[in-house]
Amino acid sequence: MKYEQTLFLADNWEDYALLDSGDGMKLERFGSQNVIRPDPQAFWRPNQPVRSWKADAWFDAKAGDDERGEWRRLNPRAPDTWPMEWNGIRFEARRTPFRHMGVFQEHAVHWAFAQEQLKKAGRPAKVLNLFGYTGLMSLACAQAGAEVVHLDASPKSNGFGKDAQSLSGLDDRTIRWIADDAMKFVAREQRRGNQYDAIILDPPKFGRGTKNETWRFEEDLPGLLDGVASLLVKKPLFVILTAYAVRLSHIALAQALGDRMKAFGGRIEMGEMALPEEKTRRMLPTSICARWRAD
Fold it and tell me: Where do the S-adenosylmethionine-dependent methyltransferase domain residues begin and end (predicted)?
């Protein structure tokens, strides 16, 4: 198994930009709206004082918890949802109670990679997207011609994905939107003998399934990776694994994935995912990643 260090930089956006960052905050443009959100990774000084930033909304985090809080609407005319687009994929951005915007924009680097690999394959491909959130990766794969199984424990997130499928003119593409627990679903797919050409995993640090099943990253990931490896065809195309807010390095993540992929050969790219800051050379790290591909 070959291992390569890389930086996964999401620099392929027109509708998104990181405008400034620092002092634990970030100013971003999502389509027609600018928002201010906390980010503990922004450990440096901002280009302009945070209080001088111009935005449509500001997320006030609760003390000691960057994920929970409430939005302050600075522009009373700013709608709650608004259109965005990436490479012909259309969807709606929205301010959620957990400071998220309905899209993890740093994953665009993987959307482009998946499309490239699927188009190069020259064969029909079936893709499994686990912990798929609002489904932009699923749409990217479907746009590239793949048959997709999208799984997320949240029916609401799946509903947003279905809406985006229609907005993107992809209703004729095959995407199964499934609300289920990832571990249980993978176990059932093993029993059924179903296999996939490519699998994407974006598991949270902690989560709950549709029937209140608990997911803990460090405890449950090894078993899930075992199951995922058993679902791959003899000559798979790629596997993408990302992780947020865990006490692991990308090296640990890559070697855990490499253990399961040894029989397939290929190589693993590993490193940090990041967003480029507009008009500067700074980058905002967001997560870690290990990405296997066939030679």
Answer: 67-214
